[in-house]
Amino acid sequence: MKRIVVLTGAGMSEESGLKTFRDAGGLWEGHDVMQVASPQGWHADPLMVLDFYNERRKQLVKAEPNEGHRLLVELERQYEVKIITQNVDDLHERAGSTNVLHLHGELLKVRSTQKMDLVYDWRKDLHLGDLCEFGSQLRPHIVWFGEAVPLLDLAIDITAMADYLIIIGTSMQVYPAASLINFAKPGVPIYFIDPHPAIDETYYKNLTVIPEKAGAGMKKFLELIP
After folding, report:
1. Which fold is adopted by the domain 1-18+65-104+148-226?
2. Active site residue 127
3. pLDDT tens sequence across 69-99
4. Residue 104 and which of 10, 33, 168, 208 are 20 to 30 A apart at CA?
5. Is the bond preceding 176 in cis, omega lying within 30 degrees of 0?
6. Longest Cα–Cα distance in the chain
């Protein structure tokens, strides 16, 4: 069975009503991303950071997978599909995708500030004073700017196994995630789906650019793939 690896970014979930920050001058829901998505922001004002993610969590629970998510699930009928997502939502899973790697963490999980591998499922608000079993404050299970990406090596290995690579809704500006395209095997067909594709079409061989949002782009992809 042929292997399809899918790299998804914020544009994948935009049609589900989840706002992105890449086109808003570094703002995410009106906040400077470094205030709410960096260790420095956390240490400066942890209450604001917790409030921010509490609101994002409530927003996520109300959101629904969009057509792009659902069309990715259809691929599993004929291909081995592995999704590597920069998104912290669970919309891929709710749509029915069975193999999803969250490179930047998950909004519906929290972790200990002292033991980063101590992770809990979490759907309610998170407050100062909510502690792990060893007495340390809990924080969002999100990889913030400036932090290591623990699952990067696994993502590289998955990308290297692809027979087809699909990239959906990402600016290709956030590293190290943006570097994953370079670990695909030489000659692997690459499909880039984004309404404003920021990619050098002359640099990558076997590249097909589909300048559409996730849902419409996936429809065109399904018409193109052998």
Report:
1. Rossmann fold (3.40.50)
2. no
3. 999 999 999 999 999 999 999 999 999 999 9
4. 208
5. yes
6. 54
